[in-house]
Amino acid sequence: MPDKTRGAGLKVLVIDDEPGVCNTLTVLLGEEGFEVLGASSGEYGIGIARENNPDIILLDIEMPGMAGPKVCRILKEDPATAEIPIVFLTGKLNLDAMEVTLDGVAQGYIMKPFSQFDLLDKIDEVLDLSV
User: Fold this and answer.
1) What is the pTM of this model?
2) What contacts 25, CB < 8 A, 6 or more positions away?
3) Is residue 62 a contact partner of residue 33, using CB atoms and an 8 Å limit?
4) Count of domains in the chain?
5) Is 104:73 a contact under the CB 8 Å cutoff?
6) Rounded distance, CA 37 to CA 127, Å?
7) Contact 73, 81 (CB under 8 A)
8) Radius of gyration of the chain from Cα atoms?
9) For the segment 60-83, what is each residue's pLDDT rounded down to a tens digit?
10) Residue 90 forms beta bridges with which residues?
11) What tens-digit pLDDT sequence spans the chain (131 residues)?
């Protein structure tokens, strides 16, 4: 049975153009007590991040329009969102995403398909949650 208090009071913003990924993460993280916000594009995600100040952002690397690494850089250059931890979601690592991650701009990545446990472990690690 999930621990309903794990994410209590914490907001997660999921920026991913794949509705199935967004739906899966909304259900999974919602069951863990997180408030989940969703955006289907990088541009929309930037606006949601600025308006809602989430505790963590899960960001797809490859999206049409504005790709994840560019979204990450924009968010990190904006004082209103610069401190929000970002974790990439990816089916494959590209060099741009690796560079952003290794430069310490993003707090890491999770490979798709991901397991529930790997996802929650990464969120726990980044947010320093003791579960």
Assistant:
1) 0.90
2) 12, 14, 16, 36, 38, 58, 119
3) no
4) 1
5) no
6) 17
7) no
8) 13
9) 988 999 988 899 999 999 999 999
10) 111
11) 444 578 888 999 999 999 999 999 999 999 999 999 999 999 999 999 999 999 999 999 889 999 888 999 999 999 999 999 999 998 876 666 666 665 668 888 888 888 999 999 999 999 998 65
The CATH number assigned to the domain holding 69 equals 3.40.50.2300
State both tokens at 115: 């397991």
C-alpha pair distances (Å), 15 with each of 4, 5, 22, 93: 23, 24, 8, 17
Amino acid identity at 78: D
- Quick one: tokens of 56? 């963590």
Residue pair 62/91 in contact (Cβ under 8 Å)? The answer is: yes
If one counts every other C-beta atom within 10 angstroms of the C-beta of residue 119, the result is 19
Two structure tokens written together for 42: 């990088």
44 assigned to some structural domain: yes
Task: Tell me whether residue 119 is in a domain.
Answer: yes
